[in-house]
C-alpha cells in the first residue's frame, strides 16, 4: 500500500457503502414490504385513516420505550423491568388523579420523576455494585409488579379525568380551518400542512448537510441512497399525513413520539454522551481508560429508561382509561425485540435509534395486520418469534460473510 | 551417558510477518533437568507450544523425535498421550472446584459417566503425598495459596503417565520457601528417573538444579551448556541471552532535556485482587521534558501496575504516595483527573484496553478528548473529521479512510490510532506500555520516530518495554524494576543488557 492512501481521505464507493449499511436499508425496505403486504392482504384496511391512527396509538409506547432500551442495549445491558414500571406508574397516576384529585399537570411530571427514580434504583446496583443487569431488572420486574398489586389493592382504578386522557387519545386541533370539516374530504388541514412542511424541511436539511460534508470532506452517503431513502420516506409520510388529515388529524401521542425520536436520534448521533455510550458498549475497559465515567453513564441510561417507561405507562393508562395490575405484562419483550430487529447487538456497542423505531413499527404493523386478518394471538406470537430470529440471523450471517 | 528422550531438530515457525522460531535445536537426555532460558520473546513458549501440539504438525518446519521415533502431534492430547505434560505459567485450575475434581478434570475416574469419588479421592491422596502437599483432596483451589496450587498442577501432571514434565516459569509467582520446595521436588523426581524441562528467568534457581541449559535468543538456539562439564556462572548465561549486536534499528536523537515534568515519590500499592499483599514498594522516579525514560524488568515486575496505578488509580488499591507535575502536586485519583493533569497512558493491551475495535478510526481518535471536538456536548462533525484526518496523515496510519473500523487495521496501525487518541489529549507526559509489542519491524521504526518527535517537542516519555535493545536504543535513562521495586537507575552510559540483567538478578537473590 502506497503512502498516498495514508494521507487521502477517500469517499466510500456505492458498493462499499451498501455492504456497510445493508442492515439499515434492508430494514427500511422490509418495513415497506410488510406494509404493502398487509395493505394488499387486508384489502386496504391497514392504511385506512382510523387504522393508521390506531396503529400509532397501539405502538407509540413501544416506540417510546425502545428509545431508552436501545441506549441500555448499546451500553451492553438489558432492562426487563419496563413492563412492571409501566404498570406501577399507571397505578400511582390513577391513585393521584382519581382518588386524590391531583391535577394532571402535576401528576405527569411527578410520575416521570418516580419512573426515573425506579430506573435509578436499578441503575445503582448495575453501575456501582456490578450486578448483572439481567438479574437486577429481573428483580425489579417482580418488585415493581408486586408494588403495583399492593398500591391498587388488586383492583383496577379509573376512569381518568379528561385532561389526562388527551395525553393518548387527543388530537392536535386544526388551526387552519380552510373548509368545513363536515363536507370536505380533508377534515384537518393542519395535519397535512405540518407533514408536508416537515418533509420539505427534511429534504432541505439533508441536502444542506451533504454540501457541508462535501466542503469539509466528511463522509457522505452516496447520492443514490440518499435520494432513494428520501423518496420512500417522503412518499410514505405524505401518504400517511393525508390519510390522517381525512380523519381527526395528528394524534397527540404521534407528536410526542416524533419529538422524542428526533431528540434521541440527535443525542445518539451528535452528542458526546451518545458517543460515550457507544464506546462503553463497544469496549467498557477502553472507554474507562479513556477517561469516561462508565459507572455514572450506566446509571443514567437506567434513569433515562425509567423516565421513558413512566411516560409510556401514563400513555397506556390514559388509553385504557383505567389502571390495572396486569398492565404492561410482557411489554419488555416487545421493546427488546424491537431493538434487536432494528439491528442492535446483544453484546453492546451497536444499534441505532432509527433501527429500533423501524423495528418497533415492523412488529406493530405485523400485530395490527395479523389482527385484522383474524389470526389468533397464538399464531401471532409464533410468527413474531420467527421474525425476530430471522432478523438477528440476517445480522449474524452478514457479519460472518463480510 | 543416558539416551536422548527428546530431540527437536531445525524447528522453524513463522507467524504472518514474523519468524518466531528459526532453525531451533533442542536435545533433552532422559532423566535430566533441562533448563530453557532466554529473554521475553526469545521463542521459549512458542517452542513449547510446537512440542505440545498447540501448533499442530505441518504448521512448522522441522522434526520432533521423542523416545526414538519421529512424532507428529496435531493436538495437545496427542502429546499428552505420550507423556509430555506442560504446566503453564498461568495455572489452568478451576478455582471453585476441589483439588480432586481439578486433578481428574477431563480424565475422571468414572464408569459409564458416573464418577467413583471414593477412588478419585484415594488416588488424589496418593498423588498429593508424592508432591508433598498436605491438604484434604476436597479442598477448593481458591482456598489454597499459589505455591500449593502449583503443586496441585504437578500432581495433576503425575495423574497422567508423565515422561517429560515441562514447567513454564514455575516459580515466578512463588515466594522463596515455596520455590525451594518446588525445586527440591523436581530433584526428587529426577532421582526417580523423570525428565523435566524448566523455563525460568531465575538463573540462580536454574544453576541449582539444571543438568543442561539451552539458551534461546531472537527465535534461534544460541548454545547448550552442560553444567557438569564446566562451572557455568550467571554472567555466562546472561551473555548468551543478550549477546546480540546492537543494530541500527533506532532513529538517532539529540536529547534536549529540560525541567522535571513528572515526579513520583514513595508510591506504594497493594494488589488489586489479593488485597492484603503489597505489590509496589516505595516507587520513586521522575521524567523530564524532552526525555525518554525507560522502565526495564521481567514480566510481573510491576511495571504496568506502576503506570496504571498512577494513571487514575486504574490498578490496585490502598494507593499512597505523591505525584507532582512541574513541581506541583497533582490529584490523579481518577482517570479524568490524571488526563487533566497532563498524563496519558498508552496501554500494552491495545485490543482489550486501548481501542473500541468495532468503532472507526475517527471515533477512537477523539474518544479521550471529546470536548476538543464539541461545543456544549454537541459534536462538530467537521472538526472531528479534521482532527482524525490530521492524525491519520501525521502518524501515517494506513487505512482506506478515517471511517475504517479499528478491528481491520494491522497491529502497527492500531497502535498509531491509540497514540493518536492520547496525543489529541495534549499530554505533557506519555506513558508508553510496550508500544511496539506485536508489530512488525517497519512499524516499530515509525513508532520510535514518533517517540523522538514527541521528545523533541518537549514532552516527557516514560517507556515500559520487555525488549531491552529497544530500551537501550531509545531511552536517555532507564529504571530497572523487579518484584515491585525500583532496583536500579542507569544512565544511558551505564545501561547495557548485562547491567540491566545483573541488576534484576542481584535484587532477586537478596530476597
TrEMBL record, chain A:
Family annotation (CDD domains): TM_PBP1_transp_AraH_like
Top-level taxon of the source organism: Bacteria
Subcellular location: Cell membrane
Transmembrane segments: 25-46, 52-73, 80-98, 104-127, 134-152, 189-207, 223-244, 250-267, 297-317, 379-397
Keywords: Cell inner membrane, Cell membrane, Membrane, Sugar transport, Transmembrane, Transmembrane helix, Transport
Membrane topology, as annotated: Multi-pass membrane protein
Main location: membrane
KW Metal-binding (keyword) present: no
Family annotation (PANTHER family): ABC TRANSPORTER PERMEASE PROTEIN YPHD-RELATED-RELATED, XYLOSE TRANSPORT SYSTEM PERMEASE PROTEIN XYLH
Described function: Part of the binding-protein-dependent transport system for D-xylose. Probably responsible for the translocation of the substrate across the membrane.
Protein name (record): Xylose transport system permease protein XylH
Taxonomic path: Bacteria, Pseudomonadati, Pseudomonadota, Alphaproteobacteria, Hyphomicrobiales
UniProtKB/TrEMBL annotation, chain B:
Pfam families in the cross-refs: ABC_tran
Signal sequence coordinates: none
CDD domains, per the entry: ABC_Carb_Monos_I (cd03216), ABC_Carb_Monos_II (cd03215)
UniProt keyword Amino-acid biosynthesis, yes or no: no
MF-aspect GO terms: ATP binding
Gene3D superfamilies: P-loop containing nucleotide triphosphate hydrolases
Alphabetized UniProt keyword annotations: ATP-binding, Cell membrane, Membrane, Nucleotide-binding, Repeat, Sugar transport, Translocase, Transport
Record's keyword annotation contains Membrane: yes
All copies of domain ABC transporter, residue ranges: 6-243, 264-508
Family: Belongs to the ABC transporter superfamily.
PANTHER family assigned: CARBOHYDRATE TRANSPORT ATP-BINDING PROTEIN MG119-RELATED (PTHR43790), XYLOSE IMPORT ATP-BINDING PROTEIN XYLG (PTHR43790:SF1)
Protein name as annotated: Sugar ABC transporter ATP-binding protein
Naturally occurring in which organism (per UniProt): Shinella lacus
